[in-house]
């Protein structure tokens, strides 16, 4: 069975169809895209001001944007004397080694320390409640649930929302919220936000990057953010075991020039046994797709990663001509136009075939949809 919601950071969630999900656990029908207005911002500020305690939650297998945004918010609230916890719904709960430099990790607590009915829970970079993992039930029980996100595929869960599909990263929304709260940027907060925007813009290489993005980064750098250290940790540091896993994945890679309407598809897969054999944690291979996508002959890239139960997590990328979020949505997933994902339980060959068919079925619709979004702004990747 296919189905999984994902953003540019690949993280496991419940497989759609693998078990029955209650209706209230699913996102609401997708609303028309719009940017938060002053009323939206004020409603979130009111929720924060009125809360007795606040739980700040990133998605499972957090990336720099999710965890950086949550930690930045936690550090800012601590400045204001507000009790805040940061968490994410994985077990075991492991901060990726590439994010080990992030300040504020003393705020992170295990799932068991998050109240069963939080007074206020704020989620960061979470497009679908299933991406909360073990914290989904607690989110549904929260007295107040606020969603801060930048995914176009966000269905609009939560009671109050700051969802801006035109923002290059959730960190940008957190920065604006802190400005409205009157919290000044210090080096620690800025480091967390920089990790967020650098992660989701691919080190400022993706089409979401605009002059405003660079101006934002410049403000962060002015606080003394160690951008060179951050860049090395995010992009240029891997274990030797990862190199062995990568080599095997590249050996398995297949190029299909006729797929995606003749634009080309390159795909590969990573069996769980490879991770075990080389001692590589799942979160370390999230960037593997950025190596595979270098193939000049393919517009679309697909990497399938096997989990211990045999299910697959599909990560997809496009170079600008195909809306892979639309293709993934046809398989029960979603994400950004150029970076999306889905889940599958039907094996590698059948999953690749299903994805190929989804691309074929879209035809020119994916490109047309992308053109429509571009007509609104140049900031969405």
Q: What this model shows, in words?
A:
Helix content is 37%, strand content 15%. It is of the alpha/beta class. It folds into 2 domains: 31-235, inorganic pyrophosphatase (n-terminal core); 240-373, Diaminopimelate Epimerase, Chain A, domain 1. A 6-stranded mixed sheet has the order 6-7-8-9-11-10. It starts with 37 loop residues before the first helix and ends in a 5-residue tail after the last helix.
Secondary-structure blueprint of this entry?
Elements lengths: L37 H13 L3 E5 L5 H16 L4 E5 L31 E5 L11 H6 L2 E6 L10 E4 L6 H12 L5 H14 L10 H11 L5 H9 L4 H13 L1 E3 L2 H4 L2 E6 L1 H7 L10 H4 L7 E7 L5 E7 L5 H6 L4 E2 L3 E6 L3 H15 L2 H12 L5
Helix pairs in contact: 2-4, 2-5, 4-5, 5-6, 5-7
Organism: Streptacidiphilus fuscans
Pfam families: DHH, DHHA1
InterPro entries: DDH_dom, DHH_sf, DHHA1_dom, Oligoribo/pAp-PDE_c-di-AMP_PDE
Keywords:
381 residues, alpha/beta, inorganic pyrophosphatase (n-terminal core), 14 helices, five-stranded parallel beta sheet, six-stranded mixed beta sheet, single chain, disordered C terminus, Diaminopimelate Epimerase, Chain A, domain 1, DHH family phosphoesterase
In brief, what are we looking at here?
This is DHH family phosphoesterase. With 381 residues, the protein is α/β, with parallel strands linked by helices. The protein has two domains: 31-235, inorganic pyrophosphatase (n-terminal core), CATH 3.90.1640; 240-373, Diaminopimelate Epimerase, Chain A, domain 1 (Roll), CATH 3.10.310.
CATH superfamily of the largest domain: inorganic pyrophosphatase (n-terminal core)
Distance between the amino and carboxyl termini: 28 Å
Strand content: 5-15%
Task: Give the overall shape.
Answer: globular
Number of beta strands = 11
Q: In CATH terms, what is the fold-level topology of the largest domain?
A: inorganic pyrophosphatase (n-terminal core)
- How many domains? The number is 2
Question: What CATH architecture of the largest domain would you give?
Answer: Alpha-Beta Complex
Largest sheet strand order = 6-7-8-9-11-10
- Which stretches are low in confidence, meaning pLDDT under 50 for 5 or more residues running? 1-31, 365-381
**How is the biggest beta sheet arranged?**
6 strands, mixed
**What is the overall number of helices?**
14
Specify the structural class. Answer: alpha/beta
Backbone CA Rg: 19 Å
Helices and strands, in order, run as: HEHEEHEEHHHHHEHEHHEEHEEHH
Protein name: DHH family phosphoesterase
InterPro entries: DDH_dom (IPR001667), DHH_sf (IPR038763), DHHA1_dom (IPR003156), Oligoribo/pAp-PDE_c-di-AMP_PDE (IPR051319)
GO molecular function: nucleic acid binding
């Amino acid at each position: 069975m296919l189905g999984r919601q994902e953003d540019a950071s690949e993280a496991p969630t419940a497989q759609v169809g693998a078990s029955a999900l209650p209706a209230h656990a699913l996102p609401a029908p997708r609303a028309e895209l719009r940017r938060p207005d002053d009323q939206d911002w004020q409603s979130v500020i009111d929720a924060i001001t009125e809360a007795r305690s606040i739980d700040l939650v990133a998605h499972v297998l957090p990336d720099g944007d999710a965890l950086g945004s949550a930690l930045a918010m936690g550090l800012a609230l601590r400045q204001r004397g507000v009790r805040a916890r940061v968490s994410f719904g994985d077990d075991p709960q492991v901060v990726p080694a590439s994010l080990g430099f992030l300040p504020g990790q003393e705020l992170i607590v295990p799932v068991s320390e998050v109240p069963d009915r939080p007074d206020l829970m704020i989620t960061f970079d979470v497009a679908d409640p299933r991406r909360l993992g073990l914290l989904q039930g607690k989110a549904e029980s929260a007295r107040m649930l606020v969603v801060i996100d930048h995914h176009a595929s966000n269905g609009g869960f939560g009671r109050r929302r700051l969802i801006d599909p035109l923002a290059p990263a959730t960190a940008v929304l957190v920065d604006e919220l802190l400005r409205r709260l009157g919290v000044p940027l210090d080096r620690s907060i800025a480091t967390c936000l920089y990790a967020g925007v650098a992660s989701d813009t691919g080190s400022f290489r993706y089409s979401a990057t605009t002059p405003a993005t660079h101006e934002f980064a410049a403000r962060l750098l002015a606080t003394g953010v160690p951008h060179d250290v951050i860049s090395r940790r995010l992009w240029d540091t891997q274990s030797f075991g990862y190199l062995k896993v990568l080599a095997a994945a590249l050996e398995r890679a297949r190029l299909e020039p006729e797929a995606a309407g003749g634009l080309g598809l390159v795909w590969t897969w990573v069996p769980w046994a490879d991770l075990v054999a080389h001692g590589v944690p799942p979160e370390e291979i999230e960037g593997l797709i950025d190596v595979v996508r270098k193939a000049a002959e393919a517009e679309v890239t697909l990497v399938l990663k096997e989990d211990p139960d045999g299910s697959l997590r599909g990560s997809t990328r496009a170079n600008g001509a195909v809306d892979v979020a639309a293709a993934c949505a046809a398989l029960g997933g979603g994400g950004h136009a150029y970076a999306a994902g889905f889940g599958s339980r039907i094996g590698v060959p059948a999953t690749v075939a299903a994805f190929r068919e989804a691309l074929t079925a879209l035809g020119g619709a994916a490109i047309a949809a992308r053109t429509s979004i571009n007509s609104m702004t140049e900031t969405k990747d």
